[in-house]
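hey
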């Protein structure tokens, strides 16, 4: 029997390119920073460990457990949908920025410097890019390749499950081949934003003011909320629903680069 779904060569090539970028870009950035600023990779590992503990091990399982409960209600109410987006954005901001703060307090035995904060942020954002984004993209590609080689009629599924799978595959087939590259573009700008947040939280210790932690939480929450909420809020469809959130992330990344420069140790009040 013929397969129920065919994945194009262009889609495979774009996905492989995206995975390679998502995995290698953070490592290349960390290599450059380590050599240029003479910073140990230990701080990259600290950032990765904090993301693992406070996002992957703690927040993500809780969100997944709650999602099964709230999804029917969210689908039935636009107000609840936006409330859920606010909750997701806020919990991400709280988990990651409080995690950064705890990492600075308990892991940094040496002086907490700007250069170490940069490497710390690269580890935080790098783990997300390599493991969550790149890893999940790779799993998605494997699944698509597997489904492109079988006929849904031969799988042990109920009629409802088979129809749902068919609809999902049709939705994937209708997507442009370049779509995976949008994920790589997002990582290009998300990484400097992560570094900027790490440099902002650093100011809690450099300037002795907790308001910097709350600023980082607010910035993280706001960017997540706008990027995730702008498409449903404006009822965007098609290419606009893909590209406009990526523009928001790009602007956040550009702002992050400015913050990284502005909070360089030469500007920090001691």
């Amino acid at each position: 029997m013929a397969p129920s779904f065919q994945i194009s060569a262009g889609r495979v090539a774009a996905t492989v390119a995206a995975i390679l970028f998502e995995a290698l870009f953070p490592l290349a950035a960390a290599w450059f920073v380590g050599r240029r600023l003479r910073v140990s990779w230990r701080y990259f590992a600290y950032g990765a460990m904090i993301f693992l503990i406070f996002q992957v091990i703690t927040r993500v399982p809780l969100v997944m457990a709650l999602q099964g409960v709230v999804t029917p209600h969210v689908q039935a109410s636009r107000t609840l949908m936006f409330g859920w987006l606010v909750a997701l954005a806020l919990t991400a901001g709280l988990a990651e920025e409080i995690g950064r703060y705890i990492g600075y307090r308990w892991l940094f035995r040496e002086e907490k410097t700007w250069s170490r904060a940069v490497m710390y942020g690269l580890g935080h954002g790098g783990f997300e890019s390599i493991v969550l984004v790149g890893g999940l993209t790779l799993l998605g590609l494997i699944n698509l390749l597997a489904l492109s080689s079988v006929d849904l009629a031969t799988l042990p599924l109920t009629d409802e499950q088979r129809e749902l799978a068919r609809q999902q595959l049709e939705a994937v087939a209708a997507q442009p081949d370049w779509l995976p590259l949008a994920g790589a573009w997002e990582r290009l700008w998300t990484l400097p934003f992560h570094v900027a947040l790490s440099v902002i939280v650093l100011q809690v210790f450099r300037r002795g003011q907790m308001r910097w932690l709350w600023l980082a939480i607010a910035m993280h929450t706001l960017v997540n909320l706008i990027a995730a909420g702008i498409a449903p809020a404006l009822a965007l469809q098609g290419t606009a629903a893909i590209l406009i959130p990526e523009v928001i992330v790009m602007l956040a990344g550009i702002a992050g680069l400015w913050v990284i420069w502005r909070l360089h140790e030469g500007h920090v009040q001691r």
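The chain has a mean pLDDT of 91. The two ends are 72 Å apart (CA to CA).
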